[in-house]
Amino acid sequence: NAGVTQTPKFQVLKTGQSMTLQCAQDMNHEYMSWYRQDPGMGLRLIHYSVGAGITDQGEVPNGYNVSRSTTEDFPLRLLSAAPSQTSVYFCASSYQGSYEQYFGPGTRLTVT
Amino acid sequence: GIQVEQSPPDLILQEGANSTLRCNFSDSVNNLQWFHQNPWGQLINLFYIPSGTKQNGRLSATTVATERYSLLYISSSQTTDSGVYFCAGNQAGTALIFGKGTTLSVSS
Question: Do residue A92 and residue B96 have CB atoms under 8 angstroms apart?
Answer without folding.
Answer: yes
